[in-house]
Amino acid sequence: MAEFSLELNEDQLQIQKWVHDFADSVIRPAAHEWDEREETPWPIIEEAAKIGLYSFEFVANCFADPTGLLLPIVNEEMAWGDAGIALAIFGSTLGVAGIFANGTPEQVVEWAPQCFGTPDDIKLAAFAVSEPDAGSDVSSLRTRALYDEAKDEWVLNGTKTWITNGGIADLHVVVASADPTLGSRGQASFVVPPGTPGIAQGQKFKKMGIRASHTAEVVLTDCRVPGRCLLGGKDKLDERMARAREGQRAKVQAAMATFEASRPTVAAQAVGIARAAYEYALEYAKARRQFGRAIIENQAIAFKLVDMKTRVDASRLLVHRAAWMGRTGKTFEAGEGSMSKLYAGETAVWVTEQAIQILGGYGYVREYPVERWHRDSKIYTIFEGTSEIQRLVIARAISGVHIQ
User: Fold this and answer.
1) Going by fewer Cβ within 10 Å, which terminus of the chain is more open, N or C?
2) What CA–CA distance (Å, rounded) separates 30 from 32?
3) Which CATH number fits domain 254-399: 3.40.920.10, 1.20.1290.10, 3.40.50.2300, 1.20.140.10?
């Protein structure tokens, strides 16, 4: 019988400590400043690149972990430091995930390293899916991709919104519709290489949380990319659309393939935020004295911390299960990837709110980090699929019914 263990292996433990030390010594001390500035923290990204944390080699190593756990472990530690800075550093991995999920091996080799550049010439990547009228409803994308056969080029037109690194990225992975009549089955992913004319940043958003992460619109105006920039290739796209026109069941689509790969990782970030808030509230409750004793000696506080810790650990277990299933090729029969995202995201919101309550007035002011963690946590019930969408995915999975 196969051995069962919840222990991390030696390599995972070493990397976890290495990333945690960076989060503790570099990210946390800078978190408040970059949250207030609402700017991309280039000095922190440069520090991460110098030590090899921001690099294709490191991310490829995480993706290659046979257990699937290394990427969530790293993301939890980074978000424990600060979610906004963590997203600024690892936002490029969304583009990498889009390339890995949809590209050929040759395309992965060509484009994935360009998402990071080198420590002396740092690059950023972005994954552009959402649109002003197509957020949760990915099948309604209006961005068009028209093929110019004479030039073997694709012409992209449309506006993307809520895009991490949008417009400032050197390389964009854009999901567009090659045949709108097929809905999501007519969509494909395209690499827009650095320096391509016709792509520009639109509005930059001022956000409630994760302020160190750049979020903006991406506007595509007659943006021409070579035929080789269609991830997966034209033959594969033509075959898929032909099957769809014949009414055959389609395989996972361009945007969904990326979301399935990224949801446990995003959930791990939510776990990191929740853990940070729990740990801070615990230490505060042991040190804070009221009515002649530490406030943790009151059941109202102690039991609150018990529930916080339990939900954090339960979230992590869901994340690790989903990541392991995804990496080892197990079928998500009950929407396990969505379960991890749903529970971890809502746990982060709840735990950070409880941390504010434990700190009282101190929890409500910017001098203390828990209010920032609460602001940061909310996005985890919205992006990469809202909590409502996650519940829809899970409901369909467990029932076999197409619930609307």
Assistant:
1) N
2) 6
3) 1.20.140.10
Backbone angles phi, psi at 153, to 5 degrees: -135, 150
Quote the CA–CA distance of 327 and 125 in Å, as a whole number.
Answer: 23
Interatomic CA distance for residues 226 and 107, integer angstroms: 13
Give pLDDT, residue 309: 98
Which of 195, 162, 40 shows the shortest CA–CA distance to 94? 162
Determine whether domain 125-245 maps to CATH 1.10.10.10: no
**Range 321-339 average pLDDT:** 91
Contacts for 280 with CB less than 8 Å, ≥ 6 apart: 355, 369, 370
Structure tokens at 74: 């790293």
* Residue carrying the six token digits 């709840």: 350
- Asked if 77 is an active-site residue, the reply is no
Instruction: State the pairing for strand pair 171-177/125-128.
Output: parallel
- In CATH, the architecture of 10-120 is Orthogonal Bundle (1.10)
Query: What mean pLDDT comes out for the span 240-256?
Result: 72
Single out the residue of 36, 29, 87, 56 nearest to residue 272, CA to CA. 87
pLDDT in tens, 1-44: 567 889 999 999 999 999 999 999 999 999 999 999 999 999 99
Q: Do 340 and 264 touch, CB atoms closer than 8 A?
A: yes
For the chain, give the number of residues: 404
Phi, psi of 174 (to 5 degrees): -115, 130
